[in-house]
């Protein structure tokens, strides 16, 4: 099974993706780990696509965590299931705020070897704030994923929209029973 979890930053897609990977005994691939380099520098697209392609081809099944819309030709080429984590705005924003506070407080490195850490200043007072990003992208992500679900180019993909925890639990149970 090849699964891509998508959704607005703060929605809980990474948490659900890690859990799905563990429950289904599949490799977990985090797109942010492939993309981000030290000092918050992104990976150039050609190298990013090559890294993503190599990660996806390294095993017959996987759980991929991340949006990066420009990667669709690679990540959705052979995907079986796209899980859209689409919780309401206030829940998503509250989760993003909680995560930003926790990361700034603990100063955890976000992606191994990058040294990238979030700070209170970056999270709450910067134009590059992840919270501002969540606010700016929540509505446009909904519009885009609703359109994707109807797009004939993606007719080969099963889409599931998760809007509450009960649906996430039901999905996990369904996928586990299919093993």
TrEMBL record:
Source superkingdom: Bacteria
SUPFAM superfamilies: P-loop containing nucleoside triphosphate hydrolases
Keyword annotations of the record: Kinase, Transferase
Residue runs in coiled coils: none
ATPase AAA-type core domain: residues covered: 5-55
InterPro entries: ATPase_AAA_core, Cytidylate_Kinase-2, P-loop_NTPase
GO molecular function: ATP binding; ATP hydrolysis activity; kinase activity
Keyword flag Repressor: no
Name recorded for this polypeptide: Adenylate kinase
